[in-house]
Amino acid sequence: RASFLVVVSTGMALTRLKNVFEPDVSSYDPALADEIDSARALLENCKPHHREAIQLAMHDMYGKRMEALITLPKAWEEHLKNNVLKDKRDYPLMLTFLQCTIWVTFSSCVQLFVLPKSGWSYLWALVHIPVTWALFAERFILAMHYAAHRPLFSERSAWGRTAWVLNNAPQWVLSNFWGMPSGAYYLHHIVMHHQANNCFPYDISSTMPYDRGNFLHWIHYMINFLHWIH
């Protein structure tokens, strides 16, 4: 019996750990029941080669999200949703930026004020790199991508100009911790990529010259971003 409980507990712990890195899509929001039923009907009647794409879309739209690993008191949440954010549905994105800010602030303080006095300071990289990149990188970059198109904070709220600063903070400040120079993401993604619409050579990140079914082309595309090799 004890062994069984250990196995079950270990399995549950591993599932929770997996969901820290990947959204848990095992359950759907009951409030979206009608939309989910329509999507399921579409899934049942779709062509076989469309099935996986529809399943992924359903998971993305209706699955339980795990981007934000922190929560705020209910009163704060309601105030932010109703008085500060442009759209209350963007609340999870705001939490994502908040948790990233808390982490990089903490890690920076450790590196600047604590570890320089220790000969073992380089060992902090064993913590900083996995948390920053494995845990938060995808969350932050996807949130920044969305916020670059649709600012989260309303400048008509009581926060005024502070809202404008908060809308730009991810691209100006936080992006540097994930290897993107201040302001570069907006110029690359909004000004260049969407204006050129992936057309080569005007969009320097265009996928047009590449065969998406060729693994070597994918390697070259990745190296292009890492070392600017054309």
From TrEMBL:
TM stretches of this protein: 91-114, 120-142
Membrane listed as a keyword: yes
Keywords: Membrane, Transmembrane, Transmembrane helix
Name the UniProt record assigns to this protein: Fatty acid desaturase domain-containing protein
Lineage start: Eukaryota, Haptista, Haptophyta, Prymnesiophyceae, Prymnesiales
